[in-house]
Amino acid sequence: MRKLVLAAVAASAAFVATPSMAQDTMADNGTAAAAPDGTKAFGIEPYVGVRGGWEEFSKDSVPGAPVGDKLNGSLLEGLVGVNVPLGPFFVGAEGNVAKGVSGDIDWQYGAAGRFGLRAGESGMIYGKVGYQWVNFDKRVDTNRDFDDVTYGIGFEVGPKEIGLGGITGNSGIRLRGEVSTFGWTNSFRPTLGVIAHF
Fold it and tell me: Which of 83, 97, 98, 178 could form a disulfide with 75 if both were Cys (CB 3.0 to 4.6 A apart)?
């Protein structure tokens, strides 16, 4: 019941916020306006990014891992993707490759679809669903990659939202924070990084 109430509140908030965001995407002459960070209100928006993070897998969620052990590690990840702005909303797809820099994770790679709301002057709030492969180091008694569906939520904020509008201008640089999971709840993976939109 609590989940149903939270979903209804979120839907109501999105419905109320949509008209004001839609007004922000229209110029005075009624045509589509560019977002304040220089990106288009409609069209195709490619991007690249780099971010760092941490991932911890739940106990006994990885076959071949030491019994009762939580596999974890820090990551450095590269991203490439594309957004398709749709007025106050957007959809998109991205691919990622991550290298473990400490801990039990060796490599990760995957792809995901994103969808969400354009918020404020150049920000985004989104959800994502994709597929991820994980390769662990030698402590896991197997050479194969583990794979599963991945789910996540996140945000992006442009330079004006973080007080850097005068420094970066219309560069399309955004800060991205995200929390995702491998499988339904087999891991916890917070990341933070910088995305460059073109």
Answer: 98
